[in-house]
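Could someone model phenylalanine with this protein?
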Amino acid sequence: MENKRGSWGSNIGFLLAAIGSAVGLGNIWGFPYKMGKSGGFTFLLVYLFLAIFVGLIIMASELALGRKTRKAPIAAYKAVSSKYSWLGWFAVLSPFLIMTFYSVLGGYCIYYVIINLIGLFGGMPDGSSFGAMLTSIPASIGVLLAFMAICFVIVAGGVSGGIEKFNKIGMPALFVMLLIIIVRALTLPNAVEGLKFMFIPGYAVAGGFIEEAPNLITVLGTAGGQMFFSLSLAMGAMITYGSYLGKEENLVKNSGIIVAADTIVALLAGIAVIPAAVANGINNGIPVNEIKLNGPGLLFKTLQDVFHNMGALGGVFGVIFYLLVLIAAISSAISLMEVLSAHFIDKAAENGKTLERKGVVLKVSAVITLIAILVAADGLGENGFAPAALLKAKVAGWNDCWLDFFDCWSEGIMMPLGAMLMALMIGGEIGPKVMLDEIHNGEHSPFFSKFYRFCVTYIVPAVMCLVLAGQLTDFFGNQIVSYIIAAVCFIIFSYHTLIPDWKKIDK
Ligand code: PHE
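Reply:
Sure, complex below.
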């Protein structure tokens, strides 16, 4: 398959790149801490349900939409109907907003690799390094610039020459490193308490970790948001990666492998992180309900304390662990940057121009970096210029720091809205049959077809309403208002798919 846009060298190369996009901070950081916050086992069950009935369906649909249209998101949605261009804009704006903080977190990983490397020679750092890093503006910005430079080099290298190459080495390396960390974590005394928290129903409360289990709807909102983010869905990434994929590749199998691999890595990351944090807490006399499994501190504070307390080899495990998180962060960040770069490259091609990839990626990187500097300097709200501080407003989920502000727009609002509309668009406009034709490429598997039709028509839209309501509640606090907004969006979007399609471009 030859074309100027670039293409994958092989199906396995595509798979590793897509898994690389999916496996990121969402798995290694988000999954364990959201599980910690949402009652352990219940969260796990809900997550698995969502991954199979919603994640798999949207994954196959996005890959199919990309491959069918051979275009980046805006043009791909436009090819369905010009009335969906704005949905494409969501899928380009979200990756941009995500990159403004994802790059900062990626920079933090570089910082932690460095301090653990230094720790190898004595004076192992502990969890207090987190505060020190956040309040050191030059350090935070310095590591951000390093992270962006690495991503620039990879994405500028092209689809198969840069992205695929990095993932072919990075993904297997990440997996091996994760296994090493799991063995170390599970051999810590009392690690079994952490495993019980994860896998025994009700143990989060019975074992004294949390006082009361959150209600199912809250768990559904959290798990749904997590699942979308973790699988890189509704952000244009899988549409873009799908657009480089050969017609002969099996989309059902590929989607299944990506979803399974992402879920397995999330679970493995949980098994590496939660038992280590719990064991370290218990071994140091901290009551279980005070062990911080929850929130951003888990990865950079609690775990650094674990490595600090490991003795002589702590630094080695620290370097391995943060290096694996860094690889995960890079492999996801490059997919976000590819969405943006592909958009500009395709747009120019539409107007008969050819843009040089390097120049486009450089501009994309520069704009992201400019805004990310604000997020880095803010230091999760530590340095006094978070939106709430600037607006002199009450502190809420959306305004407590710039990271949460950008996250609220992208992951909290655009992502669930985009996914909801996409499901309605498939159900009401394109029709599951057209999607299935592309997914199966002419050859139907009756079981998957039935499953797909059922999920895309009923389960996905319903779940997206709940996820949107859950995300809005998370950021803005008012549950009833959030449900009303979600329901109104659902009605408007359903109506949207019924509006006669006056400017059909290609169907
Ligand atoms: N899936 C990535 C993670 O888990 C984040 C991501 C979201 C990447 C959307 C690309 C697109 O961290």
